[in-house]
Design goal:
142 residues, mainly alpha, 67% helix
Length: 142
């Protein structure tokens, strides 16, 4: 598996409600001079945004199953994310990168029928900003 593909998979899984970590993978890979930092940043962002789209789709089409154990967001998590979303609207998606609340927010965006184009724009800005900060920190550290 290439480093780029590994990063893509890590970023995609990390954006879903599955427990995963992509920032450390990215920080490690940017220290390899043979790899393109802009490409790593792009791959991580695309993977993470696509993972958020999976959450949006779950919210959009699977809400009727929210009482099932396998549903990706607990009732308590859904209520907390809905409260944030109702207070700040689509701009709450700028917090989609934040651990513990970001992933449920992307599910709630689907439940509340946030249009996909605005969802993609805001989530991409948030995720790219976070990865840019990770890259900057990793490069400053080496």
């Amino acid at each position: 598996m290439t480093p780029y593909f590994s990063l893509f998979v890590a970023a995609l899984v990390a954006a879903t409600l599955l427990p995963a970590q992509s920032e450390l993978v990215l920080a490690y890979l940017v220290t390899d001079p043979a790899l393109s930092v802009p490409l790593l940043l792009g791959v991580a962002t695309v993977g993470n945004v696509l993972g958020s789209v999976v959450n949006w789709l779950c919210g959009r089409f699977l809400r009727r199953f929210q009482d099932r154990r396998w549903f990706p967001v607990s009732g308590k998590g859904m209520a907390r994310a809905e409260a944030v979303y109702h207070r700040w609207g689509r701009w709450s998606l700028l917090a989609s990168w934040v651990p513990f609340i970001g992933d449920p927010l992307t599910v709630v965006a689907g439940v509340l029928r946030e249009p996909l184009p605005s969802f993609l724009l805001i989530v991409t800005l948030a995720k790219a900003g976070r990865y840019l900060a990770v890259v900057a920190a990793a490069l400053a550290w080496i």
